[in-house]
Amino acid sequence: MIKKVLTVAGSDSSGGAGIQADLKTFEEYGTFGFSALTSIVTMDPDEGWSHLVTPIEPDLVEKQLKTIFAGAPLDAMKTGMLGTIEAIEITRSYIDKFSMENIVIDPVMACKGTSELLQPENVAAMTRLLLPKATITTPNLVEAGILSEMGDLTSVEQMKEAAKKILNLGPKNVVIKGGHRLNTDKAIDLFYDGSEFTIFEEELFATDFNHGAGCTFAAAVTAGLAKGYSVEKSVALAKKFVAAAIKNGQKINPFLGHVWHGAYNHAEDRMNEK
Ligand code: PXL
């Protein structure tokens, strides 16, 4: 049976992050994707590509989850941008009601291109209601600094300390993405399972065409878990998947370049007329 995977996240109307990244990634992994939309992000080319986040009515979030969970059990799920505290509460209630396992919490707090953070009270609700249910959480350096209350993280040693603090919030595993924000010549991710630290390294690509990288990484981990891979293997494979996606990033419009979710599997070659 094909594995079923859910994303509870926002729509990135520009096509690279959010549920668009998630569903494309789920498909690349050969899993069957579902989505419950929590918000819609739009960008205005007439206003310097400024972002607007419009939350979905909580009642409509619930209706989507009811539809999705009506079928056979899901194999894994992830959360991304969560529009409202109510959406967070509803998501938690479905996790409990259906005894969901294999849960990836991507603690999205801002979009690139906007300094506007998610409401602090949303972050608090996500921390309280969702992190304790997480198989793994996938903060970037900024998000890890906020969750650990350590502020700026500038070294692997500090990332280790932050990972310990984040694990105390309840997730079973944490991976902190150093990315381009850590001033290293490699893209370094730190994985912590509560007993051991593992460093994952990939080439750091000098590209701006990396919109959607974070969502794609978390979605790849989720699909890996759905397929029955261990948490560590899911992270290792996700890292390779997203590295290929960044390396083959595409300039999508005058403002932005996106990761290419199909790069790892050379999806651009599919269905070509021979
Ligand atoms: O990359 C963070 C992110 C998450 N979710 C949605 C987004 C973005 C950034 O644009 O639009 C829906």
Beta-strand segment tally: 11
**Beta fraction of the residues?**
15-25%
Global shape: globular
- Rg from alpha-carbon coordinates: 17 Å
Q: How do the SSEs run, as a string of H and E?
A: EHEEHEHEHEHHEEEHHEE
Named once each, the bound ligands are: 3-hydroxy-5-(hydroxymethyl)-2-methylisonicotinaldehyde
Q: What separation lies between the terminal Cα atoms?
A: 31 Å
Name the structural class.
Answer: alpha/beta
Average pLDDT reading: 94
- Largest sheet, strands/sense/barrel: 6 strands, mixed
Number of helices: 8
What's the number of structural domains? 1
Enzyme class: transferase
Family: Belongs to the ThiD family.
EC number: 2.7.1.35
Domain Pyridoxamine kinase/Phosphomethylpyrimidine kinase: 12-257
